[in-house]
Write a structure and sequence with these properties.
This is TnpA domain protein. The protein is an all-alpha fold and 33 residues long. The protein is 94% helix and 0% strand.
């Protein structure tokens, strides 16, 4: 159970890292244009 809770917390940091990923998507769209 503790590991499950830890995994839930581990999913939160990647979410913050997902912000830079959004930037990459924006660059991809600009390249398409």
């Amino acid at each position: 159970r503790v590991i499950s809770d830890r995994q839930a917390y581990a999913v939160i940091p990647p979410r913050k890292n997902a912000k830079p990923w959004k930037d990459t998507k924006v660059h991809s769209q600009e390249r398409n244009e």
